[in-house]
């Protein structure tokens, strides 16, 4: 039977009663109060082994009291409950050092599990997570569409539910998956991402589940898979629609049984992984075509989140532009402003590449133009250029070196007497690498092994480049 004293603060008498019953039944001594002043009096006189508290109380907001509690008794776990189910409440709770955040209404069983865990943990663990939260809010945008997303995310924050994120390419699916991990209860565990479209189909199972030595030609040693690497954390399965059938069957079995075997292995391995999947394809369409298992779909689609395309939330463009200029500045690029007409011009664009397209545009504007204020004409110029390469000479027969030279002359001219920002070598190589790798992948229909051969680079190098340069790999059989 557990022991210890729990201090409960909530101005709602019904909640106090319910918590009193549940926690007393579990064996704890419970003290109840309806205000923050009494709570603080107890805490400051050394009473209690754990606090459960509401956020808004008649005399004070708990977020103002929490820093004092953390300072005076850093070992005292504080569980914060709130009916204000916003992304920010969840984040603020962790920022202020709460042990856990529970959106109301919550499951009593979950609460007693959290209490049990907190009471049995060794004292002296570092004041909870997220030092990064102060300076950086991951998801930008205040449009109604994004607010709806935040509401869902806040509700999901303290759960381990499987989430399926859908949305066009570049809408922020991976970012949302990362936010769910970083601010959720698995944040101290690993976040492992795997993109089904970026891995040769016949290697996907080995990548996911690991393989034994000699399991297939080339398997010279045992290798761990992403499930093992993500143990205790989150596994992000990107482009899930590209998962081959056999791997789907295997994944389904893991989701049903909570264990898996490596490729070539026999011993079942228990897994403790939270799954977040993402797709930019219509999975119901793939199910109809027999390319995606319906039973797997239902297992993954426990909580569906659909991310809006950027053209559905054009009101966020101003915030996003400021955000990306700020990021560019942090990377050492010059500070820029944008005028109102240019912003309007951006709002008229269709954004087929969504936020990624906007981000890349802002980066180019910050890196390539000396002007402090970005105007419509610059935007027009950029949006009319075929992205992302700017190296295309009008004359295709010209050699590449000439094109680059011509491009660089124009580039330096843009700065007049001044020099362009530092880092030119890598920026230019990146500009060349992108079309080069994209062309090799297109020519090999997305087969990275063949593309690596064609380019004469190592397969892992190519995979890394594809990731770093954010290249879309589209596999086609024909
Ligand atoms: N709401 C947002 N706020 C700030 N940055 C964002 C937002 N949405 C997307 N981004 C940025 O846009 C880029 C693309 O996002 P991300 O990679 O998450 O998209 P995706 O939907 O996973 O794309 P794909 O389907 O092509 O993999 C990233 O650099 C990300 O940081």
From TrEMBL:
Gene Ontology biological process: regulation of DNA-templated transcription; regulation of nitrogen utilization
A GO term from the CC aspect: cytoplasm
Span of domain Sigma-54 factor interaction: 139-367
Domain Response regulatory: 5-119
GO terms for MF: ATP binding; phosphorelay response regulator activity; sequence-specific DNA binding
Pfam families: AAA_lid_14, HTH_8, Response_reg, Sigma54_activat
Subcellular localization, as worded in the UniProt entry: Cytoplasm
Residues annotated with 4-aspartylphosphate modification: 54
TM region positions: none
SUPFAM superfamilies with a match to the protein in the record: CheY-like (SSF52172), Homeodomain-like (SSF46689), P-loop containing nucleoside triphosphate hydrolases (SSF52540)
Keyword terms of this UniProt record: Activator, ATP-binding, Cytoplasm, DNA-binding, Nitrogen fixation, Nucleotide-binding, Phosphoprotein, Repressor, Transcription, Transcription regulation, Two-component regulatory system
NCBIfam families the record matches: ntrC (TIGR01818)
Its biological purpose: Member of the two-component regulatory system NtrB/NtrC, which controls expression of the nitrogen-regulated (ntr) genes in response to nitrogen limitation. Phosphorylated NtrC binds directly to DNA and stimulates the formation of open promoter-sigma54-RNA polymerase complexes.
UniProt name for this protein: DNA-binding transcriptional regulator NtrC
Upper classification of the organism: Bacteria, Pseudomonadati, Pseudomonadota, Alphaproteobacteria, Hyphomicrobiales
Chain's gene name: ntrC
């Amino acid at each position: 039977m557990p022991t210890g004293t729990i201090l409960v603060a909530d101005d709602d008498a019904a909640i106090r009663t319910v918590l009193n019953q549940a926690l007393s039944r579990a064996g704890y001594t419970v003290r109840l109060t309806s205000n923050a002043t009494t709570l603080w009096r107890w805490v400051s006189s050394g009473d209690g082994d754990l606090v459960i508290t509401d956020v808004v109380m008649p005399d004070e907001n708990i977020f103002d009291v929490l820093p004092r509690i953390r300072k005076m008794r850093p070992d005292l776990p504080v569980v914060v409950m709130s009916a204000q189910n916003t992304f920010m409440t969840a984040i603020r709770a962790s920022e202020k050092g709460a042990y856990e955040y529970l959106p109301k209404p919550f499951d009593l069983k979950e609460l007693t599990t959290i209490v049990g865990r907190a009471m049995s943990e060794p004292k002296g663990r570092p004041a909870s997570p997220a030092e990064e939260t102060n300076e950086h809010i991951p998801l930008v945008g205040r449009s109604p569409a994004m607010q709806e997303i935040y509401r869902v995310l806040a509700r999901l924050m303290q759960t381990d539910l499987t989430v399926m994120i859908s949305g066009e390419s570049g809408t922020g699916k991976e970012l949302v998956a990362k936010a769910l991990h970083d601010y959720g209860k698995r944040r101290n565990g690993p976040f492992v991402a795997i993109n089904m479209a970026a891995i040769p189909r016949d290697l996907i199972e080995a990548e996911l589940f690991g393989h034994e030595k000699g399991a297939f030609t080339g398997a010279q040693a045992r290798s761990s898979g992403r499930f093992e690497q993500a143990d205790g954390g989150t596994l992000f399965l990107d482009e899930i629609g590209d998962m081959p059938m056999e791997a789907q069957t295997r994944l389904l079995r893991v989701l049903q049984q909570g264990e898996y075997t490596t490729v070539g292995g026999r011993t079942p391995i228990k897994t403790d992984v939270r799954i977040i999947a993402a797709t930019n394809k219509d999975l119901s369409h793939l199910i109809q075509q027999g390319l995606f298992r319906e039973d797997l779909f239902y297992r993954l689609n426990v909580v569906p989140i659909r991310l809006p395309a950027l053209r559905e939330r054009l009101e966020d463009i101003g915030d996003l532009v400021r955000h990306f200029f700020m990021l560019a500045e942090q990377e050492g690029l010059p500070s820029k402003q944008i005028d109102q007409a240019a912003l309007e011009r951006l709002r008229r664009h269709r954004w087929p590449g969504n936020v990624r397209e906007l981000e890349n545009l802002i980066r180019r504007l910050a890196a390539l133009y000396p002007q402090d204020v970005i105007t419509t004409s610059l935007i027009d110029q950029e949006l009319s250029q075929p992205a992302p390469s700017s190296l295309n000479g009008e004359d295709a027969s010209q050699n590449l070196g000439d094109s680059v030279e011509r491009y660089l002359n124009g580039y330096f001219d843009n700065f007049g007497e001044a020099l362009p920002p530092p880092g030119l070598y890598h920026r230019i190589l990146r500009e060349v690498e992108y079309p080069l790798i994209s062309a090799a992948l297109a020519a090999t229909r997305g087969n990275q092994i063949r593309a690596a051969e064609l380019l004469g680079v190592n397969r892992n190098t190519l995979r890394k480049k594809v990731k770093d340069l954010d290249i879309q790999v589209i596999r086609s059989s024909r």
